[in-house]
Write a structure and sequence with these properties.
Blueprint: H1 2-12, H2 27-38, E1 44-51, E2 54-62, E3 70-71, H3 76-89, H4 108-111, H5 115-119, H6 143-151, E4 162-164, H7 169-181, H8 185-197, E5 203-204, E6 226-228, H9 230-241, E7 245-246, E8 249-250, H10 254-260, E9 269-272, E10 288-292, E11 299-303, E12 311-315, E13 320-326, H11 330-353
């Protein structure tokens, strides 16, 4: 009965027909998820592993509803970069254009910051610590006003030289998007990402202000402000994994996806990495390069884990992708989630070689 209900849910949510292996997760994978609950302390965790738009398996461990809607913190960054890149695809923004040409409040060195540097946290505007500046901004001001507040702050580093994770740069990218399109961030996200992908349970707000009504938020936190479900995020990953296409409709160009999965911080000083980053020290555009191909800058394994534990990933070698969906501080679960992901990838490789 449970198997039938899970399959019905998958079909109803449009994640694709269940694969022959649905619910047949590798034993080590299931054991790691159990450890996330019993040893690490997560109330519950949902794991979806997919390939070519098909659900390979889904596991729900502990106390978590199948349709749980949670704040995903930095897993939002991948969605932000994707929406920005739709505007780049349109030709209304350029990754390497100085932002001072469009936002005159950025002057001097700050005016020479590029959109690429904003999305890779190398803009010199500081990191998440010490004050979480953008997270504490008024959610009811405009993104243009939010960017002006960022412009009024002194630079911490020479732009383009230093990586500091979690700074306010994405609010500036959002202001550029709104200026270039004449549309609000929320409206554009609905038009270009949420609507085409069917993300009916996803909205933007601020994780430090959980009582906000989405319709009142004009300054959503773009590095950490998404609330969503595991199934919605899986649809988003399906689009990225397919090179920007979802159900035959192109959302992002293949070039945009390639740019987002290119190591941007080679040669930069990695001055601040967040708790839970573990051994990963390479950043692309809105996501981490867990591994790169040989000596190139092409990312083979990419991820965008959030401070509350949600951990999405794509492995380009195997074609597998998935999301661990939960709410617990990332450092408590990151090791087990990475090991679970690696078990899934290794099991797929073993199946293909066998």
């Amino acid at each position: 009965m449970m198997r039938a209900s899970v399959i019905a849910l998958v079909v109803a949510l449009g994640l694709g027909a269940p694969a022959a292996r649905a619910e047949s997760a590798p034993p080590g994978f299931a054991a790691k998820l159990q450890q996330v609950v019993t040893r690490d302390g997560a109330p519950g965790v949902t794991a979806l592993v997919m390939k070519n738009g098909r659900l390979l398996y889904r596991l729900d461990k502990g106390a978590i509803a199948p349709d749980a809607q949670l704040p995903i913190a930095s897993a939002s960054k991948w969605m932000t970069a994707s929406l920005v890149m739709t505007v780049v695809d349109q030709g209304k923004l350029e990754l390497d254009e100085p932002i001072g040409r469009r936002l005159p409040e950025f002057t001097g060195k700050a005016g020479r910051i590029t959109l690429r540097e904003l999305l890779s946290f190398t803009a010199g505007q500081g990191g998440l610590k010490p004050d979480m500046f953008d997270l504490r901004q008024d959610p009811h001001i405009s993104l243009a006003a939010a960017a002006a507040q960022v412009a009024a702050r002194p630079l911490v580093d020479e732009p383009g030289t230093t990586f500091r994770y979690g700074g306010p740069s994405m609010q500036v990218a959002g202001a550029l998007v709104e200026q270039a399109t004449g549309k609000s961030w929320a409206a554009l996200f609905q038009e270009r990402i949420a609507g085409p992908l069917g993300l009916s349970h996803t909205y933007w707000a601020n994780p430090l202000m959980p009582g906000l009504k989405p319709e009142t938020v004009r300054n959503p936190n773009l590095q950490a402000g998404v609330y969503t479900t595991a199934d919605d995020y899986a649809k988003f990953l399906t689009m990225l994994a397919a090179g920007g296409v979802y159900h035959g409709r192109r959302i992002l160009s293949a070039k945009a996806v390639d740019e987002m999965e290119t190591w941007q911080t080679r040669g930069r000083t990695m001055a601040y990495l967040p708790p839970g980053a573990g051994p990963i020290d390479k950043y692309a555009l809105g996501n981490w390069c867990d591994t790169v191909e040989g000596n190139s800058d092409r990312c083979w394994l990419v991820s965008s884990p959030g401070a509350y534990g949600t951990f999405p990933w794509i492995d380009r070698r195997s074609g597998l992708y998935g999301v661990f969906f939960l709410k617990l501080r990332l450092p408590a679960v990151a090791k087990d989630l990475r090991e679970a992901r690696d078990i899934a990838i290794a099991a797929d490789a073993g199946g293909r070689s066998g």
